[in-house]
Design goal:
This protein is an alpha+beta fold. It has helices at 18-21, 26-33, 70-82, 167-178, 216-228, and strands spanning 2-8, 11-17, 44-48, 55-59, 65-66, 91-95, 98-104, 110-117, 137-141, 144-152, 156-161, 188-196, 199-206, 210-212, 235-240, 243-250, 254-260, 262-268. Helices cover 18% and strands 41% of the residues. The structure holds 2,6-diaminopimelic acid.
């Protein structure tokens, strides 16, 4: 079975055709994503090419399915370019979290994705929080008084504004916030420090993946929350441990993301990877 391994700012994914994915159980996908017993990855991207518009499914390392992934979409767009299915003209991609527009820039190392509209209604995540939006609301987690803003990019995000970013706190509290009862489908988590009106620094805890070096939808959500709160302007550089993404806003919180993609390898998986697993 053939997999293609890419990363976007250190948020790495395996890509495979749906004819390969259809042979795999959810347990086997989790094994493939394991960094010791499998190839290792922050998730699996499944290319569904039997429709006129390319369709992407996104499976997290814990086997859960995500509605959208920003780095995943940039990687998928680059993969479609590498296999010659698209050129440099913009094209549409369908995801569970909605249709997006992608463009692979010259040289294929930069990809632009119009990620759709940021939504602030708790019901969009979903989250069981009263009101039309949940902006800078108090959340007590692990004895810490936090200020949370909820955003949907098609997938759910809980954005925590802090004075000073502490990545250890992201690792310490991320999993507890991810699984709070107010998030029936769990949530992605970002801790955000506003550097100035055009720069933010974020730490990421991903739903179904844990701490990651970068996240596209998290960057969009964090920048959108800070814009909604009036802390940033229409163009924001998001600084993450894995690198930076350029986020820009148009209209009513329509979010565009531009950033790099690199191919690492194509990998043929040996069936022995699954030896000893329950049938
Ligand atoms: N784990 C996320 C999906 C991947 C998000 C991240 N890798 C990105 O680049 O947006 C979720 O369950 O919503």
């Amino acid at each position: 079975m053939l997999f293609h391994r890419y990363h976007g700012l250190g948020n790495d994914y395996l890509v495979c055709h749906h004819s390969v994915a259809s042979l795999l159980t959810n347990q086997q996908i989790q094994r493939i994503c394991d960094r010791h017993y499998g190839i290792g990855s922050d998730g699996l991207l499944i290319d569904i090419d039997d429709a006129e518009i390319p369709t992407l499914r996104i499976i997290n390392p814990d086997g859960s399915e995500a509605e959208k992934s920003g780095n995943g979409l940039r990687i998928y767009a680059r993969y479609l370019s590498d296999i010659g299915r698209v050129g440099h003209a913009p094209f549409l991609v369908n995801t569970l979290g909605g249709q997006v527009r992608c463009e692979v820039a010259e040289g294929a190392h930069q990809v632009i994705v119009d990620m759709g509209q940021a939504k602030f209604s708790p019901s969009a995540l979903p989250a069981s929080v009263e009101g039309d939006d949940a902006l800078a609301f108090p959340l007590v987690v692990g004895g810490h008084q936090l200020s949370a803003t909820l955003v949907s990019m098609g997938n759910p995000h809980c954005v925590i504004l802090v004075k000073k970013l502490d990545l250890d706190l992201v690792r310490q509290l991320g999993g507890e916030i991810e699984t709070l009862a107010i998030f029936p489908k769990r949530t992605n988590v970002q801790f955000v420090e506003v550097l100035d009106r055009n720069n933010i620094s974020i730490g990421i805890w991903e739903r179904g993946a844990g701490y990651t070096l970068a996240s596209g939808s998290s960057s969009c959500a964090a920048a959108s929350a800070m814009r909604k709160l009036g802390h940033v302007d229409d163009n924001v550089t998001v600084h993450m441990p894995g690198g930076t993404l350029a986020i820009s806003f148009s209209g009513d919180f329509q979010v565009s993301m531009r950033g790099p993609v690199q191919k690492i390898a194509s990998v043929t998986l040996d069936d022995d990877c699954f030896w000893g697993m329950p049938e």
